[in-house]
Structures are given as structure tokens and as C-alpha cells.
Amino acid sequence: METIYFTNMQTEFGNSLEQKFRKLLKKSAYFDGITQGQLVALKVHVGERGNLGYVNPNFARIAAEEVKARGAKPFLTDTNTLYSGGRHNGVDHCITAIQHGYSYATVGAPFVPADGIRGLGHREVGVSGKHFQKTKLASGVLEAERIIFLTHFKGHIETGFGGSLKNLSMGCASVAGKMEQHAAAKPVMKEVHCVGCRQCYRVCPVGAVSMVKGKALIDYDVCIGCGQCVAACNYEAITPGSSADTEDFIEKVAEYAYSAYNYFGSNALYINFAMNITPDCDCWPANDVPVVEDVGILAGSNPFALDRATIDLINTARAQVSSRYHAKIVGERDVFEEVWDNPMAAAGFDHARSQFGVSLEYELRELG
Ligand code: SF4
Ligand code: SF4
After folding, report:
1. Contacts of 348 (CB under 8 A, 6+ apart)
2. Of 239, 258, 274, which marks where a domain is finished?
3. Distance 237 CA to ligand 2 centre (A)
4. Of the residues 89, 262, 336, 340, which has the maximum number of CB atoms within 10 A of its CB?
């Protein structure tokens, strides 16, 4: 039975949300284990450009202050994206982080892209899954001595919801790791966009890319679908192949999440911010009206039980009248299954439970 600590959104003079968040951090025994000189990753999502629904960087500042108070060294981190946008490479990602308030000046910790400048930096981690025996997790998170997941809890068009499990699976995967969760096929060339920079040619591990008349050409008989060229291309000339079937995708995400969770073990703390609960994820370049009222902040050491507890609380929250999904979710409901017309969340939990024996049992302990 996992203990999940929870603080609601009510505040008063002398007990602000900032103070309540500090109490929540200290309540967990996790912070007692942080020691002098450790490199502590604060795993965040800085939000795609155009999206303002991500976790307020002040919460990251508070976590960074508590880490530094124990003599350790916090850094902000996230992995580069599979698709184009403001976070596809390390340079754009750092700029987006600063624009969204995740800077050393505001948080007191530097932003370090976890899988490097082009999303190529990963190591393989073993897992006994139905789909994977190895996962490709970003070196920057694997090499941290401790890691704190600061996760915005919201909806997600493909997985139903995005919480700590999504922050572990997609959030800790390199670009190639994201591709093997998302795509069922080999990458697609869009020759018209190719500028002949040769980055894909350099990174292909099996020599499947050749340069012909200044353009890249993939030999699909040789290609193993590793996704390294998708990561390396900065011109949208190589994109992921067709998407995996939804059920397979959910199972793959669950396997990546378990792989990372198992690797981090007791060195990880998971925190869900169930506030500003938008229908779409923070990768979407806009944030729509939240679907329900703010719930609060939850923390625990088992991300499966933590996400289950967060969904259970969200399902008791009042629907936002101004949400476009209000009519669908008002009354008795599972909020994210109603919003996205798909019981995807249940499928992911079921797969993790049957494949790895993870526990979803929890005891909610509310702090004042
Ligand atoms: S997916 Fe991997 S193997 Fe295939 S062309 Fe790209 S880098 Fe080479
Ligand atoms: S990385 Fe992209 S732009 Fe550069 S050669 Fe390869 S396909 Fe063309």
C-alpha cells in the first residue's frame, strides 16, 4: 500500500501554496536521503511554444532550494521531442525553457537537455516486456544520482491522461526511444526538405543512409528503424513512420514507464500538479480551458499508484462550466475517458499490472 501525500488548493495567511508545497516535500522521507554534492535532476516539461499550461516554475525553484539546502546540486532537465517545434533540439529547447521561466535566474538551477543537442544521447536499459527487452533512456536522467519528477497532470489525446507515467516513458526516452513507442514503421523521407547537411548519414548505426546528388537516401532493406536519423534531422526531412495501433502504443508507453521506474528505484520522487487540468498535453502549442477545477498537489514514490490516485481525485472534481467538454464530463464519469472517448488509461494500468506486477493500491494522506 503506497502512501500518497496530498495537499489541496486552499490557502490562508501563513499557509500559502508555496509553504504547503515545502511541507509536502519535507513530509516525504525522500529529501532526508539527499546528500552533499549529489547531482539531482528536476525532471520538468517546459511547455511547447504557445502553451502556458505547464507547471509554474516557482514550484521548481522551491524544489531546487530544498535540494541546495542539503548541499546537493539541482538541474532542470527534459528530453528533446520527436516532432518539430520549440524543443526538437537542445538549443531551441534551452531557449524555450528560458522563455517559459525555467532559467537559472528564476529557478536557481540550469536547464540541461537530457539527451543532448540532437536527442541522440541515450543508453539502453533492460526490461522484460511484451514489446521491449530494452528501452532507450536519456543519458542525462540516468546519470543523475537522484531525480524528482515535477509533472503537470492533464489530458492527452493518445494516452487519455498525461501524468508521472508519461513523464517517465516519453519524458525520459531519447528521440529514438520516443519513436519506438509511437511508430510501428520505419522513418519517412521528405526529399524536398533535405538540405544535404549529412547529419543523418553520420548517425545511422547500420549505414542505411547514403547521399545521392546532395540529398539523403534511406535503404529500407538495411534500415532497422532505430530513429536516430529522425533525431538528427533539423529540417523535417525525416519523420517517424506510421503510428502504432492504439492498444500497442499504450502498452509500449507502460513498458517504458516501468523500465525507467525500475531503473531509478528509491532514487526517484514523483510529484503530480493536478491544477490547470487542460484537455491536451503541454506538447500542444496552445492550452485550452481546464476540464475540471484545480485539485491540488500529490507526491509519492510509486508513479503507478500516484497517477491512479490523481485520476481518482480528478474524477470527483467539479467540471469547468466554460470547458468545451463540460456536457460530456458533468455528473458521474471518468473525466479523461469521457474527454477522449477511449478507455486508454485503464489499458495502460492493466498492462503494467499484468506484465510487471505493479501495485495501484494507495492510502491518501492529506496535509493541511
Ligand atoms: S532509422 Fe536508424 S537505421 Fe534507419 S535510416 Fe534512420 S538511423 Fe539508419
Ligand atoms: S539530416 Fe535531414 S537535411 Fe540533413 S541530410 Fe539528412 S535528411 Fe537531409
Report:
1. 159, 160, 165, 250, 251, 253, 254
2. 239
3. 6
4. 336
Whole-number Å distance between alpha carbons of 353 and 79: 27
**Averaged pLDDT in 10-residue chunks for the chain of 368 residues:** 94 95 91 95 96 97 97 97 87 97 97 94 96 97 97 89 94 92 83 93 89 93 82 86 78 95 96 96 91 96 96 94 91 84 76 93 93
Kindly state the helix (H) or strand (E) to which residue 68 belongs, with its residue range. Answer: helix 57-68
250 and 231 share one domain: no
198: CATH: 3.30.70.20
The amino acid at 181:
Q
Give residue 6's pLDDT: 97
Are 219 and 278 within one domain? Answer: no
Closest residue by Cα to atom 7, ligand 1, is: 204
pLDDT at residue 330, rounded to an integer: 86
Give the pLDDT confidence score for residue 340 in this predicted structure: 83
What is the residue range of 28's domain?
Answer: 2-182+245-366
Instruction: Assess whether the C-beta atom of 119 lies below 6 angstroms from ligand 1.
Output: no
Query: From CA 134, how far away is CA 256, in angstroms rounded?
Result: 9
Residues 264, 351, single domain; the answer is yes
Task: State the ligand closest to the CA atom of 88.
Answer: 2
158 vs 280: CA distance, rounded Å: 10
State how beta strands 268-274 and 296-300 pair. Answer: antiparallel
